[in-house]
Amino acid sequence: LLAELTYTTNTRGHRATTAIDNLVRTIDIDTRGRITGDHTNLLDSATPGGLAPVAGRVFTWRADSTLTAITDQLRGTTRFTVDAIGRATSATRTPNTNPSNHTNRDTTTPRTPARAGTPAQSGNATGGVSAQENYSFTPAGVLASTTDRVIDYHNTLPVKVGRTTYTYDAAGRITRTVTKRLGKKPLVHHFYYATGEQPIGFTSSDEPNTGYRYTYDGLGRRVAKDTINTTTGEVTHRDMFTHTGNQLAAVTTTIDTTDPTRVGEGYVWTTDPATGETHGQIALTTSSTNGATQTPATPAATWSQARVDATF
Question: Which residue windows does the record flag with biased composition (Low complexity) (predicted)?
Answer without folding.
Answer: 106-120
